[in-house]
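Notes from the pairing session

We agreed to fold both candidates in a single pass and log them together. This is the raw record for the first candidate, unedited. Please don't reformat it; downstream parsing expects exactly this layout.

Candidate A
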Amino acid sequence: MSANDEPTSAPLPQEHESILQALRGVERSLDELGQAAGTGWQERARADLREVAASIARHCWFAESPEGLVAEAEREAGRSRHVTEAHREHRQLAELAHELAGALTNDVEAGVLHQRAEELLATLRKHLALEVDLIYDAAFRGERGALD
């Protein structure tokens, strides 16, 4: 996300919506890849994957901002394993999205792209589960101290 695109606040619903947009985009891309025999599938998949990368970037920016979920969990519960995992997954998600979008060339096989898209989708789903752990950390562990 560029400096001009940065929002001024990071409400949790925006963080969550961005990751859901990314999930939906990968699912659309998988549909396009499943129909790779037609014409124009690469352009449609490329557009979907650009939006996926942008959604992931928005999610990461919101979550890592001072008002975001990761920062709140870290303030409330310290540097828990969930916070550490969130930082790692944010980097991994961004890398996977960019690699997948970059793999869309004219000579790439749809099966290879499908496998990479499935990997990104699995990582996004895992990340949604981590959000629940972070919410727990921010809401409950801060009151009783870190329990890790």
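Candidate B (folded immediately after A)
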Amino acid sequence: MATFKQLPAVMNLAFKAGDAVSPTVDFDTSLTGLTVSAQVYSLVDRRKIYDIPVVVSNATSGVVTMSISSSLTTQTPAGSYGWQMQWSSPLRTVMAGTVDVIG
């Protein structure tokens, strides 16, 4: 019996509130023509807490940088959250995990 799985890669984030965080991800595939977005959300009710600013640093190579400013991390109460990154055309969640914010 064949099995098909299309699950997002897992990357967990942890940082101190008030710190700027800029993780870079290399998908090793072209992202030319795709729109990439990311969000932090509540693990309780999946309510979006904020959008993570994402820059496609190198579309041909598939390099993406998330830029979570110190003002965003300051506004996030200490605790655990979820996050996900998606790209368009077609919509696909390509990366997800937890976010632990330390007060």
